[in-house]
Amino acid sequence: MYIVGIDIAKRKHEAAVIDGEGAVIIKPFSFTNNCSGYNRLLAMLAKAKLPLDEVSFAMEATGHYWLALFTRLQKEGFRVQVINPVQTNSIRNFYIRQAKTDPRDALLIAEVIRFGHFSESTLHPENIYELRELCRGRHAIVSMQADVKRKVVALLDQVFPEYETAFTN
Description:
By secondary structure, this protein is of the alpha/beta class. Helix content is 49%, strand content 20%. It has a 5-stranded mixed beta sheet. The longest helix is centred in the last third of the chain and has 34 residues, at 126-159. It is elongated, with a radius of gyration of 23 Å.
């Protein structure tokens, strides 16, 4: 069993590979958050001649930046586990040097999976996720609209206090 721990970021992710005993198979390396970066990740696994049916991926649910990589890996047929960043922080406390760096975090994420003391984040079906994001976006726009109306009224009250009585609704 091989575990690829991936520390997710906006532009570049950091990945490291360990085996079931915790030995580092591939030292931490970075790859871009795009198709060519994902191809680089898979090429690194092929270069190490790892049996792909024994490879499991683990990543933190960091904003929305993990979604594209998650989708790509799932479409490739890999097992992908998404965990809450709080779980990685709990493992960090076991180490004397608790520095937070992306390469170290990639190894920590893999260790969380190796130890097996984690709970995967609940992932909704794609259509439910899309609907949720659309609803959130609509809610944000409606809130902005109401905020702009309040600001316009506040400005009118300052420069043209007679506005309310001069015009009908």
